[in-house]
Amino acid sequence: MPRNVSFDMGFPPLRGAVRQIILASIAIYVVILLLVSFAPPATGQQLLTYGVLNPEYIRHGWLWQFVTYAFMYVDPLDFVLSLVGVYFLGAAVEDQIGYGRFYNLFFSTTILSGAAGYALSLTHVVAQGSALGSGAAVNAILMVFYLLNRNAPIMLFPIPIQIPAKWIVIGIGAIETAYLLLYHFHILYCILLLGLGAGYLWYLVFAGRRTSLGISERFYGLRNSYYRWKRRRAARKFEVYMRKHDRTVTFDEHGNYVPPDEDTKKNGGSKSGWVN
After folding, report:
1. CA nearest 173: which of 202, 152, 196, 191?
2. Helix, strand or coil, per DSSP, at residue 258
3. How far apart are CA 152 and CA 175, in angstroms?
4. What is the distance between the alpha carbons of residues 151 and 269, in angstroms, rounded to a whole number?
5. N-term to C-term CA, the chain
6. Nearest to 91 by CA among 202, 199, 14
7. pLDDT tens, the chain, 276 aa long
């Protein structure tokens, strides 16, 4: 896709992985609201206890919290804003990377951000408390959107101005950094910021095709250079060995053996051996 495309954040069709994630989030939030409102008080709280990401419980083996925290909400405004991000940005990203890879993006960055936040909590200095909501995944989606469309301005509905995606990423990062400082490095804001980094890593691994090809080319190039160096080195050793036995052998610049009757051939002549 051209990098200078403008994205008008109107109302994209609700379909695919975005639709399923939003419907699942709504269903779970409705259950939470009903349990908190009509069930015994401990029931709704118990569901949240099982679902939110709490480092203390993860240390006791509650590893499912690395996934479930993305579907736990209490504040209606947080719930709406998170799903708005999944809807508007997710639809554009899913159109570019596909259904399966969008699921991969959402859940892998959710888990990676949560795991990194948990690792920070082991310091017992930062990333304390508990975290909930899909904000980390939304930030990862925003980062991937920017990396896929680096020069694309976004028109945020209903604001009639276009904002470059780069500045939206910077603005979100700055706001969440301010919250991180105000709330003394609470784990929620650590995970939200880590979501931007997780989105960048996801792009490098799964969506940056040119990057992947470049890494492969460099790897095979280094491997071939190593093999050529080994062949030249072996050729030099063999020349020394043969000279000690009063015999002369010749190798070309690639380490390939040149028979004696071919020593005088010009560039147009053929050589035995091979070139890697």
Report:
1. 196
2. strand
3. 22
4. 54
5. 37
6. 14
7. 445 455 555 688 999 999 999 999 999 999 999 999 998 878 989 999 999 999 999 999 999 999 999 999 999 999 999 999 999 999 999 999 999 999 999 999 999 999 999 999 999 999 999 999 999 999 999 999 999 998 888 876 666 788 899 999 999 999 999 999 999 999 999 999 999 999 999 999 998 765 455 555 666 677 777 777 777 777 777 777 777 777 777 777 766 777 766 545 555 554 445 445
